Model the fold of this input.
Amino acid sequence: MRDAERGAAVALGVGLAAQLGTAVYPYAVRAEWVLAAGFLAFIAVLLASALLRRPSWEAVAAALDRACGLEDRLLTWLSVVRGQTTGRLVDHFLRDAEAVASTVRANAALPLSRPRLRAVAALALASVLWEMAASGITVPGTPAHRVAEVVRREGRRLLAAGQAWEQRWRARGLLEPQRTAQALAATGERLTGPRASAATALRELRAVQEVIEAARRPFQSALQRAGVPEGTEPWMLQPWAAAVDRELSRIASSVDEAQLPPQRAEAIRRVLRALDASAPLPSGAPARRALQEATRRLGSGDTPGAREAARRAQEALRELERLLEAEGALAAQQREAEASSTHIANALQSGADPEAAVERPHTYPAGPRDTTRSSSRAGEDPEAQVWLGPEQGMQPGSGSVRDKLGPVSPRLPHERRPEVLRGQVSEGRVYTAQIVAPAAPARARTPLQRVPVRAVRQVDEALVRDRVPARYRDWVRRYFTGLGGR
Amino acid sequence: MTAVDVGEFQERFRAIRSQVGRVVVGHHDVVEGVLIAVLAGGHVLLEGVPGVGKTLLVKTLARALNLCFSRIQFTPDLMPADVVGTNVLVQDEQGRRTFAFQRGPIFSQIVLADEINRATPKTQSALLEAMQEYAVTVAGVSYPLERPFFVLATQNPIEMEGTYPLPEAQLDRFLFKLRVPYPDAQSVVEILDRTTGAHVPDVEPAADAPTVLAMQDLVREVVAAPHVRRYVARLVEATHPSGPHPARAARRWVRYGSSPRGAQALLLGAKVRALVCGRAHVSVEDVRAVALPALRHRILLNFEAEAEGVDPDDVVRAVLEDTPELAPAPG
Done:
């Protein structure tokens, strides 16, 4: 028992030291682990002692003598009953031993009153108190402090992004993204606390990702029912859906006319066929079926039927757009949480590096090197060079933006007209602003093409890695995909 | 009194201690040590500076035990015959001359050998036979000493000039060596009250020679279990630097360890202590309690220890710390 207590004390002591070490080095030690280690050490040493050691009767008697304060009466009694001790006072001794034994309190033999167990209890208590009162405290200038700085930075980022999203989705009336944005902001707020550790942060981020994942699931099911192929990213459909919606509005207004000139009807059918052909949806999708029906009815001269079919297609597309928007919002939130997790995990891995906590652009994965610049870095270890990103070099994935994009495309000569926009943020006042709106839509010069899923994913990953601020990534992505749609 | 039981032993011990305490102020440990040694049938060497009450303690003890007391002041010119006695020529009424043995002061029951280290080794050796054999041999005739017989010797540890340190063989004859420290301030005040006033405290006899002998007999009957005997043996063995299991302190600082008489002294002292505590069996704790007075004069320190100012008490304490109460399991 004494060895077991010693083992538990050692395990708890080591655990407590490890907990104290979290103030200097960025690793996770929780009080539950320390207590479990102490308990396991106690059991393990107890079992090992019981299995490996065969204590003699004398040892057992001596231990009981000590524990109960019997002053060697048990040991002496053992020698008397074995006949090793004789004499005139043996009877007196036996009477005395019997009398003393009857007054021994059983709880005196319990190890609870022994000082080593008190040490074990004190160590366990210290471990719990450290967890409650001082965990997360870091010593400035140490790796743990630098990692804590990264955690707080990510917390601030998530808080800002979550608040912005929450405001935005409230204005748009999308409840689920609004709810998850609130959760994201709350997580970010907790991470900005002075005692948020990396382990806690990763746990919290995992939890919020699960919440977002759960929120995404109904939308993904609904998208699947709407015929969106599995694995299709929401933003892949959004430009097409928006374009179709726009076209259908025009067509719906056009087919309201009782008599359509044949050229006009043929033009509309061509547009509808082109839209159908460029749809990134399978032919059985409700929106696409309605589109095909509208085309068919327009061909047969059934203008009201075509209008009705166009209306159904429009409704299906609006629903699809809503689903896509919500799904896109949730996916963006999930990516933010993932990115924070990645940053914190990276900081943990490079915790000893004093530069880790400094906010700086992310480094890029190894890629083709710029051979044109290698001469300027002569003498340096080529493996140690940090690849600075796609803005350098002439190869794909490298080179300056100007080199890669070539000469600036001339603006299309089209009239731009001023427009007045009205909007309301949340439940606040209504804002009006006069802006120069985009030019009226013209025919696309480049036919709409289906982009390979792999390329889309690469772009998405690049956007995540790139230095685009998290809160603007979605906008940037929509902007570029919107450009593709035109 | 033919026999004493454990309860009576305890009561008698307390009574003797109480009577001694009426005169001797403080020094509870020393008084208890002397009583334990006396009841174990051993002799005591008291070491202390002059004036701390060594002689008073012995004289008071003799009165409390109602035993015949004599005092020998050891000086350099003291001769063995002055201690044990000598044959003198006597003439009877018919004019015949014969040698008759004139008993010396050793023929007593409690002998105070005051400042024993001032006598020459030859005179000190005169005590050897008396202390060990309880008899004195003069001119080929052996004269037994009356039992109980105790030698309580005193020595001054600070005056070394003109003294003859007791040889190891002589030291080994003493069951205990007790150190008499300076009394504390409170005790000094009480000493002043008792010794400078008109009233002189009187000591009533609390025992007599047969009682003491009966108590000594009872001591021998106390149950000593094998583990206690083995512990005593291991303690003594641990004081030997060249033994199979020396303690670390013994290996470093001891030249010669305790003799088997040390083991006897340990066990006898422990037995008395057990009876004093009302027990009929010896515990390891009893042995540990008497280890210092029983072993401190039996350990001969080496030069290194002398140079470092190590005291034999330190060695004994270290030996106690290093020696487990139970023998380690074989293998």
In short: The first strand of chain B starts at residue 43 and ends at 47. The two ends of chain B are 51 Å apart (CA to CA).
